[in-house]
Specification:
Elements lengths: L5 H5 L3 H10 L3 E5 L3 E5 L6 E5 L7 H16 L3 H9 L3 E8 L10 H24 L12 H8 L2 E6 L3 E8 L9 H26 L3 H4 L8 H10 L5 E6 L11 E5 L1 H17 L3 E14 L5 E11 L3 E11 L1 H13 L3 E8 L2 E10 L2
Parallel strand pairs: 11-13
Antiparallel strand pairs: 1-2, 2-3, 4-6, 4-7, 5-6, 7-8, 9-10, 9-12, 10-11, 12-13
Helix pairs in contact: 3-4, 5-6, 5-7, 5-9, 7-10, 9-10
Length: 360
């Protein structure tokens, strides 16, 4: 474990460390005017946290406390210090295990990892906005989703194994929770469900466990992002929560080995075929037309689909139309008028269209 230097220690206080310990599953056993004792539930680690900076050995004791936490959590001390000091950001650590010298990763691979982390954030924020099960998330995304992702920061990797950290600023009161915290909680729930689904899918030799966890945020979009991060190496993901808005839960770490990553990748390809088909009403404009055969045609439509609970998803769909409805779509496209369409939606494919009405 790397030793924290003096400047790092100056950035944290005993109160910061105590909040970190309380929020990550440690228990305070006893207290004294100058010292508090913290332990883990089952692995026998003990942290002696100094409370009085006037003592001559204060810095040495604080350094030992940070080292003990790092040892218990199997992490580098700079990473632990960064979490202790980051009181206003939720942090997700991605520890990668490429088959390369420690602390390095291939340039082309880190591009995929960064894209995967970005897409994880998109999927989580989109699910938080929709607040409804959806195996395939519609495009384009709501503006709030894009705004959230633009605010996420990617911290420099730490020494040792290659670790990238995504930081989500959390500002606001605990009640009601700010959207950024809700999005990270959604990400945590979805990653846990995806990890559980992957393990079960390996046992059952089926992607059904992923579809069964749609209510927990599992989607093809999220699975694609996980597979992209692990395209060339296993990885684990760890959540750390901003102490500005306390969250009492155990340390959350999810490991994705090659077998699980391959299973998640297979689910990403299969879930769109399993997306629940439902009848929808789409109010849209005709963007593109393609005649197929015998008067049938395909129309690319862009508009709003009503989704529970009261959210209207702005999305693009492709509709297969019988001859008489295709002719109406041609008229609407020519006259630049909107249409109202009723059909069965699976993913972004609209089929069995029963009605197409020109409006405006």
């Amino acid at each position: 474990m790397n030793a924290p230097d003096q400047s790092d220690l100056n950035a944290v206080t005993p109160a910061d460390v105590a909040r970190y310990l309380a929020g990550t599953g440690w228990s305070q056993q006893q207290g004294a005017p100058h010292l508090s004792v913290w332990t883990t539930a089952d692995d026998g680690f003990e942290v002696l946290l100094p409370l009085n900076a006037e003592f001559r050995d204060y810095r040495a004791r604080l350094r030992d406390a940070i080292r003990t936490i790092a040892l218990a959590e199997e992490r580098a001390t700079p990473e632990v210090l960064a979490d202790v000091a980051a009181t206003t950001v939720d942090t997700q650590h991605f520890r990668l295990f490429p088959d390369l010298p420690s602390g390095t990763i291939a340039l082309v691979d880190v591009v995929d990892v960064a894209r995967g982390v970005r897409d994880l954030m998109y999927a989580a924020a989109h699910a938080a906005v929709l607040d409804a099960p959806m195996l395939v998330q519609p495009r384009p995304r709501p503006p709030q989703v894009n705004s959230f992702v633009r605010g996420v920061r990617l911290a420099a990797p730490t020494a040792g194994s290659f670790v990238l950290s995504a930081q989500v600023p959390v500002v606001g009161d605990a009640e009601p929770l700010p959207f950024n915290r809700r999005a990270v909680l959604q990400l945590h729930q979805a990653i846990q469900a995806t990890h559980d689904a992957a393990n079960e899918a390996v046992r059952r030799d089926s992607v059904a466990p992923f579809a069964e966890r749609a209510e927990n945020g599992v989607s093809a979009n999220l699975c694609e992002a996980v597979a992209l991060i692990g395209r060339t190496q296993p990885f684990d993901m760890r959540f750390a929560w901003a102490r500005a808005i306390p969250l009492s839960r155990d340390v959350s770490r999810f490991s994705f080995d090659r077998r699980l990553i391959d299973t998640v990748e297979a689910a990403a390809k299969e879930l769109p075929r399993l997306a629940t088909e439902s009848e929808v009403v789409l109010t849209a404009r005709v963007i593109r037309l393609d005649r197929i055969d015998q008067g049938y045609g395909r129309a690319t439509l862009r508009g709003g689909v009503e989704r529970p609970p009261g959210y209207v998803a702005d999305m693009s769909v492709t509709a297969t139309l019988p001859p008489h409805l295709y002719d109406r779509a041609v008229v609407a496209h020519r006259d630049r008028r909107r249409i109202r369409v009723v059909g069965q939606l699976r993913g972004t494919e609209l089929s069995r269209v029963t009605s197409l009405e020109i409006i405006d």
